[in-house]
Amino acid sequence: MPNIIEITDFSAPELDMFAHLTHAQLRNRKEPEKGIFIAESPKVIVRALDAGCQPLALLMERKHITGQGQDIIARCPDVPVYTADRNVLANLTGYELTRGVLCAMRRPVLPSVEDICAGANRVAVLEGIVDATNIGAIFRSAAAMHIDAVLVTPTCCDPLTRRAARVSMGTVFQVPWTQIGDTPTDWPHPGIQRLQQMGFKTAAMALSDRSVSIDDPTLMAEDKLAIVLGTEGDGLSAHTIAGCDYTVMIPMSHNVDSLNVAAASAVAFWQLRKR
């Protein structure tokens, strides 16, 4: 029988993970093995479970216990299920639950860069992208358009933030990813050299005097390519551009000089996919 618990006290410590702890506190950098993330919506939760993530607790609208949350509860028979009506849950968490279901899960241990790049031909590198919506959209494009792995720099938004994972439609649990470097000083150097030592040519998506078109035949023919995308405001740093093997632009019309980074990623991933 599922362990259904009616919420009566917002201050109950077992609800802290859903209501009172920040993402940084959930992530618990000092003790990564104790880190937690929040998965939102049934599709995201199912993909996280399929990827082997360990559920700790569920929070869902009462109507979903015998509705769209039923199969999730069946897969997590020993996990407490905290429940109430939609407005009560919104007051508890501070936001309206998408699809009415949250799951607190143990953070998985990230693999090494070398492990997820072994056998990869196309990887994406995200430099300093801080918007969770953009991170989620980039992962969704990566999953759809043949990217083998995603690497995030230490200054990037965490792909396991609730919003990033939700916008990605759970593809953060399908595309292999990890962080490249432990501190901001690890990127762009020695991070770029690390990729080059693994046989990747690095392609900085940026406008410069030496930019080649994204459909450049030599670029497209590279066996192993790391596509480097920059932050929403300023794009890639000058040091990153200087250190990459290629600087690449997407030809545009009507005097448009750039695309949103999520849109640019979709174009780049499709055009530069391994053929």
Describe the structure.
The chain has helices at residues 16-19, 23-27, 42-50, 70-75, 86-93, 113-117, 132-144, 162-167, 191-197, 217-220, 238-243, 261-271; strands at residues 4-6, 36-40, 55-61, 81-84, 101-106, 122-126, 149-152, 177-179, 201-205, 212-213, 225-229, 246-249. It is an alpha/beta fold and 275 residues long. The strands form two sheets. It has a seven-stranded parallel sheet. It has a five-stranded mixed sheet with strand order 1-4-3-5-2. The protein starts with a strand and ends with a helix.
- Which percent band covers the strand fraction? 15-25%
Global structural class: alpha/beta
Low-confidence stretches: none
Shape: elongated
Q: What is the helix/strand order?
A: EHHEHEHEHEHEHEHEHEEHEHEH
Strand numbers in spatial order across the main sheet: 8-7-6-11-9-12-10
Give Rg in angstroms: 20 Å
* Straight-line N-to-C gap: 50 Å
* Fraction of helical residues: 25-40%
Give the biggest sheet: 7 strands, parallel
Number of helices: 12
Mean pLDDT: 92
- For the secondary structure, the number of strands is 12
Could you name the key traits of this structure?
31% helix, elongated, seven-stranded parallel beta sheet, five-stranded mixed beta sheet, alpha/beta, 275 residues
Give a brief outline of the structure.
The chain is of the alpha/beta class and 275 residues long. The protein has helices spanning 16-19, 23-27, 42-50, 70-75, 86-93, 113-117, 132-144, 162-167, 191-197, 217-220, 238-243, 261-271, and strands at residues 4-6, 36-40, 55-61, 81-84, 101-106, 122-126, 149-152, 177-179, 201-205, 212-213, 225-229, 246-249. The protein is built from twelve helices and twelve strands.
